[in-house]
Amino acid sequence: MQLEELEGKKALITGSKHGIGRGIAVLLAKYGVDVGINDIEYDQAARDTVNMVRNEGRNVSWHLADITKSSEIDRLFNEFIEEHGRIDIMINNAVDARLKPFLEITEDDWDFGVDIALKSYFLCSQRAAREMVGQGTGGRIVSISSVHAFRTWPTDLVYGVCKAAIIRMHKSMAVDLKGHNINCNSIAPGYIDSRILPPEQEHLRGDITLVTKSHGNYKKAINWIPTQRIGVPEDIARAVVFLCSSLGDYVNGQCIPVDGGFLAGGTPDSH
Ligand SMILES: NC(=O)c1ccc[n+]([C@@H]2O[C@H](COP(=O)([O-])OP(=O)(O)OC[C@H]3O[C@@H](n4cnc5c(N)ncnc54)[C@H](O)[C@@H]3O)[C@@H](O)[C@H]2O)c1
């Protein structure tokens, strides 16, 4: 696959040992990008993702780091820059969530949710932008928001607030980075099948007849999605490629929903 301007670019992706982050890592590598994989856990899925990127013929680095801690973010970026020499693309993707109704959310729940789903996005974006400004050759920052930024589900208060704040934060980042050729955008995925699957079962992704009970929402959700299928990580990765290549040169400070038309359909009658 060719988009010449992406060839040899260096991208760091947080929380990318599997799921949407893996999809982004692999598609960027197919377009010639060297990739740093970060996650808080190192397991078989992480090893698989590193191998999948390497199999595309690109340089890949692994970075174990808890990105809720600024000291770990500093170490992560130092390691990444030492390995790749520079950073051109920053993808904020990591997440964790405690889903609770409003009256039960504790201060600790709030801090936990905001640290991973908003503070870490701010700190990683800021460090990446400082590197890019220093390099003087521009860059791209893309953060993964959610349809939860636009509508509400029971128990999603902290998660949804952070996802909405990401969109607003990227507008300020775009404005404050005026003149540096650093485009800052977010993507709001809809229902995406991000189950952990071994590489040999990747072809089953998106097949909701095989989704287990814990992902039961997918089966209901299909009724609300005009495109009539659940998304796969590559759907999000394609939007990332658009935003990080010359195709997206004039898109800045925006959020692109990638949801099969879910938001267009208004509010579903139940969760
Ligand atoms: N899957 C969906 O349907 C969907 C829909 C809308 C938005 N999103 C967003 O897309 C992104 C990826 O979603 P996903 O479904 O692939 O998620 P996931 O839970 O499968 O992956 C998130 C990754 O982040 C890592 N992580 C958690 N805490 C971390 C920390 N402190 N430091 C570093 N890594 C950490 C996890 O270990 C995990 O590998 C998230 O931002 C999510 O909110 C997903």
Keyword list:
binds nicotinamide-adenine-dinucleotide; Rossmann fold; 271 residues; 14% strand; 38% helix; seven-stranded parallel beta sheet; 7 strands; alpha/beta; 7 helices
Describe the structure.
The protein has 271 residues and is of the alpha/beta class. It has a single domain (9-261), classed as Rossmann fold. Helix content is 38%, strand content 14%. A 7-stranded parallel beta sheet has the order 3-2-1-4-5-6-7, with helices on both faces. Strand 4 (89-92), helix 4 and strand 5 (139-144) form a beta-alpha-beta unit. Helix 1 (19-30) packs parallel to helix 2, helix 1 crosses helix 7 (233-244) and helix 4 packs parallel to helix 5 (157-176). The model has no long low-confidence stretch (mean pLDDT 94). Bound molecules: nicotinamide-adenine-dinucleotide (NAD). The site of nicotinamide-adenine-dinucleotide (NAD) has 25 residues, from helix 1 and strand 2. Residues 14-15, 17-21, 38-41, 66-68, 93-96, 116, 144, 146, 189, 191-192, 194 line the site of nicotinamide-adenine-dinucleotide (NAD).
